[in-house]
């Protein structure tokens, strides 16, 4: 196929625009079969998206013309796909099954991955067997991860998703990320300093929130043990900056590596996932990695037209760039996936929330949509009103594990039914005629009936994707996360941007330092500081004095 130009794609969008989604189904009886994609008991249905028969092939041809297949190969080969920072993005190496060599700067990184994993395994075994002891000689029973962003969201999401309510012998795990002192205070309230281990997770070991919580954790231990007892046995660090963790007081034996070629938001596959392994045990942790590796193999080898991350990326790009949707709503119908939307917010928005291309030019259209969401069925009783009857369309992704982890009567079938009903309602809506007929059946008539119609009409014609996974366990969760990582990468290639840097978060960090100095010590503010910020600081100082 001759690659379509941007104008061809715009023409295609205009040609589709006149036909409602139900019309696209009416026109093509094979639409579901054509636009749903199966892999390893997964089913990804994009037939309710605003796509014609030609849309995905056109986007695939466009993606090929942008070199998507070459970008995928470069990602896995460890080429420096993070151009602005001149780094590889080798999260896939961390879950590689087998020891095939993988060179970064001429050096095989697989042996160092295996060495770090062996150290993790020893530590996890000791912790789970009650053999790691604190300063008073008592075994560690609680592990608290101190980290933020990628050093928190991924591990926290996985631990929450795979929590096993029945495992009474498991260690207690907790995550503290916020610099708000309330976060640490609440996490520590049920814990005993003598049996608590802190995992300070920070690739840079310079992140203000994590260092502040680390210092507060030390103070908590010192308050319990007195100044003469070393808190050393209560700390492990995961970092790329061993000198800083040493200065903080963590011994080299207790410092696990986090390499430059692992992006923060992809780091759950590294030692940053230590808390996951502590909670799951080594074998289950291996399943998580193996699941992700299976999705990696699929992404690497299956043609774009049937490749799940590619298809989802094509739809995401089409919705954002060509259909101009500013929102993307993620609704997992699984309580265990409650933290998926916030995990994806960092993965997707820190990766693709950019406005310049890889070579620094302004992008020529919108990049990623804002991503938000919450679990179904809860969110049906919150923002689904807006989705069904608000003034603009927001494409929804329904993520539905088919089998329950802990079945109770027919509740799983009810859950799945709710998901399907919502996507059907978004598609079909409810017409004025249908509302009239229903009201008539209820005995409403005349002016009362007419007055009641408008508020009850649902316009429908609103797009959604449904992802069915067979069940939720460590392997499937690994697949799900890798699916979203790769889909985000596909979209970045279509947008022409670098998904692996995040310079946008730096400015606020640097401005916080002089403001903190002004709040704490009354230090003068830089001359450029605006009147609003000065006024806010003055108000806080007046209240604090
Ligand atoms: O939010 C910005 C960020 O740099 C993320 O990319 C990263 O995951 C997070 O901060 C934490 O960084 P670190 O692991 O270095 O503490």
Task: Tell me what the structure shows.
The chain is α/β, with parallel strands linked by helices and 545 residues long. Helices cover 48% and strands 11% of the residues. The radius of gyration is 26 Å and the shape is globular. Bound molecules: 6-O-phosphono-beta-D-fructofuranose. The site of 6-O-phosphono-beta-D-fructofuranose (F6P) has 14 residues, from loops.
Q: Could you tell me the number of beta strands?
A: 13
**What share of the residues lie within helices?**
40-55%
Mass-distribution shape: globular
Described by strand count, sense and barrel closure, the largest sheet is: 6 strands, mixed
Average pLDDT works out at 97
| Unreliable residue runs | none
Which ligands accompany this protein?
Answer: 6-O-phosphono-beta-D-fructofuranose
User: How would you write the strand order of the largest sheet?
Assistant: 1-2-13-12-10-11
Report strand %.
5-15%
What is the terminal separation in angstroms?
71 Å
Radius of gyration from CA coordinates? 26 Å
Instruction: Please work out how many helical segments DSSP would assign.
Output: 22
Which structural category fits the helices and strands?
Answer: alpha/beta
What descriptive keywords fit this protein?
545 residues; alpha/beta; six-stranded mixed sheet; five-stranded parallel sheet; 22 helices; globular; binds 6-O-phosphono-beta-D-fructofuranose
